[in-house]
Amino acid sequence: MSFIRRTYRQWHRQEDLIHFQVVCKETDLDIGIRRERYSPELVQWVEKLVRDVRGPLEEYVRRDPAFLKAHTPYQPLPGAPAIAVEMADAGRRAGVGPMAAVAGAVAGQVGKALCRRSRDVIVENGGDIFLRSACLRRIGIFAGQSAFTGRLALEIRPEDTPLGICTSSGTVGHSLSYGCADAVVVLSASPALADAAATAAGNLVQSPDDVQKAAGLAAAIPGIAGVVVICGDKLAAWGRVKLVPAG
Predict the structure, then answer these.
(1) In a domain? residue 2
(2) Residues 6 or more apart from 86 whose CB is under 8 A from it?
(3) Counting C-beta atoms within 10 Å of the first and last residue's C-beta, which end of the chain has fewer, N or C?
(4) Does 149 reside within a domain?
(5) What is the dihedral of CA 61, 63, 66, 67, to 10 degrees?
(6) Which NCBIfam families match (predicted)?
(7) Has residue 43 been placed in a domain?
(8) Taking a C-beta distance cutoff of 8 angstroms, is the pair 74, 84 a contact?
(9) 34 - beta bridge partners?
């Protein structure tokens, strides 16, 4: 598996927004907000917000290390923090472990908090995106060495946001996948669920012939709005997905 050093971020960045990065341990966020809402004080606020989002989860996995290692649906202990419960629920619905939803869950919590300060918000966390927009947006699809990279984008209408747009890949990045999809992109109102479903669908792809089967798995999960599966020269799509030329 190759690791492309976050050059994929060019595919979701928006020219009318100002983008900045916030890094806290494993969490590496690319955040876009309206230019007039940006300030150094806002960046400091987001840095604290990320620590506050991560803190309860870090404390919980120290108490329940099996939560961290589970690759199948897992029931959190009584008193688990809200983010752990959200991740476990997303994992259960998609048939995977709770950590398959962690990047989407963090992006979602940070994004929802930022919505109180900016009408347009995009938070990307390792390929998993929370988006709220007041205008039409195009989010490019990065699919590694596939010929589809740089050619296709998702067109997202403002009335369909807030929205989670999460990507799993078996050929790009460091996240665990049992498949070899170049990209599985899942759309859901819940970024945590989109993240978990993308992992589940990606696990099914062992060859380009599996793209339709993987799309069908994601489509069968309640709460999923759309999915795009790419492996090599094959693509399958389902749901509220509008694919347009990139650029």
Answers:
(1) no
(2) 101, 105, 190, 192
(3) C
(4) yes
(5) -40
(6) PRK04334.1-3
(7) yes
(8) no
(9) 17
